[in-house]
Specification:
Shape: globular
Mean pLDDT: 87
Subcellular location: Nucleus
Structural class: alpha/beta
Number of domains: 2
Keywords: ATP-binding, DNA damage, DNA repair, Nucleotide-binding, Nucleus
CATH topology of the largest domain: Rossmann fold
Largest sheet: 9 strands, mixed
Number of strands: 13
Main location: nucleus
Number of helices: 10
GO molecular function, one term: four-way junction DNA binding
Radius of gyration: 24 Å
């Protein structure tokens, strides 16, 4: 590339992928020479940009710590785009989030990544008592001396504006830390409206901004993203659906559902959509020691 700069000059070099006639006019070089330079430059600029489908490396994943669930997810929750877990109130979404927040802290040889977690609450107070209970169970189960509670950074955010400010400060906060997962519990809590006629256009724009910011942070800081979502009843179809509609769903890379039948202790975990996972499901149990295969 340095030879091309010397031949054509910096200004021409910046025009290398434009019309070769422009380069001819700027350099006085022959058409063959300009086309050869453009070919060399394009080969250099596009080096390692394209690959075959077989060459695409699988994305990293965060283990849940359940054999069946991890098998269903090819190793765990993908560190690729925005993950969403939705379900009705009390079904166990926060329980699964807490288990992920502990599992990722385990050393690699125990199925973890030795990383920390940022946990953003938007509705209820962070369930610290349940976290302490699970942390004690994890220390006993894996025979480790990890202070799990000190490696989860918690923030309470009441609205979208505050979340924006929090995310803007996040890169600086993460300096010197090994954060591998961001959990937002829940995404629906940020966008609930007390007015009878909410501005859906403005809300849709906020979804787009939030999705863009999260993906940019993920690319920069290399952490997984898990958003928790509530459900609503669709009066037209009679079905229960994730909150926030299609405008939010367009920002979600992988969507998972958690459900149960009435008082049945067994929960069902569904893969709704994901780039590299087929729609499927697995059953699980929530116990005092954490989430187990059913």
């Amino acid at each position: 590339m340095d030879e091309i700069k010397l031949l054509l000059g910096v200004d021409c070099y910046n025009e290398l992928l434009n019309d070769h006639k422009i380069l001819q006019g700027l350099t006085g070089a022959s058409s063959d020479t300009v086309q050869k330079c453009m070919y060399i430059a394009s080969e250099k600029l596009l080096q390692n940009k394209f690959c075959t489908a077989k060459q695409i490396e699988p994305c990293h994943r965060i283990s849940i710590g359940c054999t069946n669930l991890d098998g269903l997810l090819n190793g765990g929750i993908p560190v690729n785009g925005i993950n969403e877990l939705y379900g009705c109130s009390g079904v166990g979404k926060t329980q699964l989030s807490l288990q992920l927040a502990l599992q990722i802290q385990l050393p690699v040889h125990l199925g973890g990544k030795g990383q920390e977690v940022v946990y953003i609450c938007t509705e209820d107070v962070f369930p610290s008592k349940r976290l302490i209970q699970l942390a004690c169970a994890f220390r006993s189960k894996y025979n480790v001396d990890i202070c799990f509670e000190d490696r989860i950074y918690i923030e309470h955010i009441p609205n979208f504006v505050r979340l924006q400010k929090c995310l803007n400060l996040l890169p600086q906060f993460l300096l010197g830390k090994k954060v591998g997962l961001i959990i937002i519990d829940s995404i629906a809590g940020l966008f609930r409206s007390d007015t009878e006629n909410p501005n859906y256009v403005a809300r849709s724009q906020e979804f787009t901004v939030l999705g863009k910011v999260l993906i940019e942070l993920q690319e920069k800081c290399k952490f997984g993203i898990l958003t928790i979502n509530q459900v609503v009843d669709n009066l037209s179809s009679g079905l229960t659906e994730p909150s926030l509609g299609l405008s939010w769903a367009n920002n979600v890379t992988s969507r998972f559902g958690l459900s149960r039948n009435n008082t049945d202790p067994i929960r069902r975990f569904d893969v709704i959509f994901s780039p590299d996972l087929a729609p499927s499901f697995s059953n699980l149990l929530i116990t005092p020691e954490g989430i187990l295969d059913a």
